Structure formats: C-alpha cells, structure tokens
Amino acid sequence: MAESRTGRGSEQFVVRLPDGMRDRIKIAASINQRSMNAEIVATLEETYPPVSDPHLAEMHQLLSRYLNDQVNFTDEDEYRLNTLIVEYRMKQTTSTPSSDHDKE
C-alpha cells in the first residue's frame, strides 16, 4: 500500500491520551523509526483500512454526508442509508460461522 503523507495542511484532531499512552507511542515510534504522528497514523490505518466493498463505501459516503450536512440530507438519502445498513447487518449475520456451542 502506498504511504500517504501528512503535513501541516492535513486534517487535525486533538486526542486526550490516558496516562502512560504517550510514552508507549513514543517507544513504538522509536522502534519503528518514525515520528509519533506517523506511528499513530500507521496504527489507525491498520485498524481503519480504506473501504473496498462498494456497498460499505456508499454507506460511508452517505454517513459522512449526513454528519456534515444534515440539512441537505434527503429522505431518499436516508432510505438508501437505512437499506444499506440492513443489508450489511444481514450479510454480517449470515457470514458469521456458528460456534460448536450453537450446534448443541
């Protein structure tokens, strides 16, 4: 995956860290030979990879529009978003393997 660069013009977000976490991030960044910011971004990229499923991508796009511009979010947008959420939940339920306990 190509590394995207972050800089002063990038989106910024202030985070309050629990005691000791800054030191853990600093150690990990040092081990990985990168800045603390790059370490945090790399960790977030691992946890929140880009969306490749087209339905999920559309859901993300609609949710983003809703969060940023609720006034212009149409009834059709809301219906489509709800449909995508229901489809996603159904897909997740049918693709989750049952445990041995469930078979008893």
Which features would summarize this protein structure in a list?
mainly alpha; 0% strand
Could you characterize the architecture of this molecule?
The protein has helices at 21-31, 36-47, 54-68, 75-95, 100-103. It is mostly helical and 104 residues long. Helices cover 61% and strands 0% of the residues.
- Classify the secondary structure makeup into a structural class: mainly alpha
Fraction of residues in β-strands: under 5%
Percent helix range:
55-70%
Low-confidence stretches: none
Figure out the total of helices.
5
Largest sheet: number of strands, sense, barrel closure: none
Order of helices and strands: HHHHH
Please state the overall shape, judged from the principal axes of the Cα atoms.
elongated
Tell me the Rg in angstroms: 19 Å
Q: Please, what is the average pLDDT?
A: 82
Through-space gap between termini: 44 Å
Instruction: Count every beta strand, where a strand is a DSSP E run of 2 or more residues.
Output: 0
Summarize the structure.
This protein is mainly α and 104 residues long. It contains five helices and no strands.
Secondary structure topology:
Elements: H1 21-31, H2 36-47, H3 54-68, H4 75-95, H5 100-103
Helix pairs in contact: 1-2, 3-4
